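Pilot study result, target chain (570 residues):
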Amino acid sequence: MTEFIEYDLLIVGSGIAGLRAAIESAKKNNKLRIAVISKVQAMRSHSVSAEGGTAAVLFEDEGDNMESHIYDTIKGSDFLADQDVAEKLCLEIPKEIYQLEHWGMPWSRRKDGKISQRNFGGYSYPRATYASDKVGFFEMQTLYDTCLKFDNIKFFNEWYVTSIIHDEEKFRGVTAIEISTGTFYTIKGTALIIASGGAGRMYSYSTYALSSTPDGLDMAYRAGMALKDMEFVQFHPTGILPSGILITEGARGEGGYLINKNGERFMKRYASKKMELAPRDIVSRAIMTEIKNDRGFTHETGIKCMQLDLRHIGDEIIKEKLGAIREISLKFSNIDPSKEPLYIRPVCHYMMGGIHTNINGATEIHGIWAAGEAACNSTHGANRLGANSTSECIVWGKITANLAVDYIAKTNLERQFPTHLIDSEEKRIFDNIFRGKGKENPYEIREQLTNVLNDKAYVYRNELELIEGLKKIRQLRSTSWKHVDDHAKEYNTNFINVMELDSMFRVAEVILLGAIHRKESRGSHARTDYPQRDDKNFLHHTLIYHNLNEPIMKKHPVTITKYKPVERKY
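Predicted structure:
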């Protein structure tokens, strides 16, 4: 039996995008009832883990310029970014850097007192604005503190949203479980912003928090919205072994070297001009090529890898600018980066794909927007440049909030509330999962699913392995894992975990289907059987819609304004 509560604006997710949206909507209308609904406590959102920077052009008088940032973003995307969206990102983010500063963001400073910026991969100028190597934590703290100044923002911490309610025309609400009590709620609302973040925990070797599962993507998918470009998964070149925790690109921005077992800075073979600061897809492929050619190290766990050498940077700079990764290295690898190189390997780090939106973050259902990594407004195309993700979260958090507030002001919801969808959702999660029967251990099934993606849809891919991966995912889904052994109401994380797994199956299928059908190599999607980019046949976005029999695939055009696709060279 559901309990009902009601707010004007619902924001699902409390990371950088969700918090920025909450602030903007509260500023614009202080009478608006705003609910920020989060699976975790707000300051436990994965945004706190962002390390390296937020990209912006701040000093045009020192040589950088907007057009350079726009073009770097488009080129970095392997020309799959919608160029009007990339332009909007670059034009809007400088104002947000200064807005954060006014709210208390402790940006790192140059000796002349100006905000400091560091080099990042794929950029023509240093434009990663940073706060040591804890930029996400400080941005989150700044935004969360600012949210607390508004009486009309209500946080629902540790609530698990399970579905979207709409009447075929407009958004009407969501269903959710209050984790602490186990109570099932329907939260009515006029507008929704989905800011639920990325889904990288579908991979076994990942930089993401354990909470980063595709719940938000899946609820949009089941509600009829398309998932776009999900075949494009970013593998960050420097995940520390054995944990996979991120070693920020800022480490290479400060001068770190990537070396193979022969002591070579091997990036000279792959991006002679940019070296270690080539875009992430190029560096990740270079590492895996070196490993394939037997120039890699063997970690004590038996995993093949490369080394990241920071020793020449010096202990003082490491402590000042890379203090967090020094701490990570010591705690999780027992290595002091000022004395020994770190063992690294490409690790799942970001989803370029997400919920299909337009340039303003609007989805295909009236009253629903998406922002941040959960959204695919096509800013990043086939490959994201580092430091553009936090920029995107901030910019579209603000944009979607403004539009949602305007929509609420002019929208009248007099039609009958679709209660049959609540009944259907209760049956799905309680009858089919909570009270389900099965002999398979869902945690073992989850481990097998994440291993399939890691093995079959990693840095290099081919048709045979992708099809094998899809067959394995579908075979695992057909086994009897839908059951919950813990029948407690309060804090039933077993129930939450199995619902997460349910979402993971649908979205994993979308990733593999997109990768199978894209018979080219573009950005992060590298096919050994189709090693060239094919603009004639594949210069388009992939849309996939949910269908009970077989997902429906469609094409969507890329917006090209100024820059015709050319070969990417660094």
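One observation from the pilot: The first helix runs from residue 16 to 28. A full batch analysis is planned for the follow-on phase.
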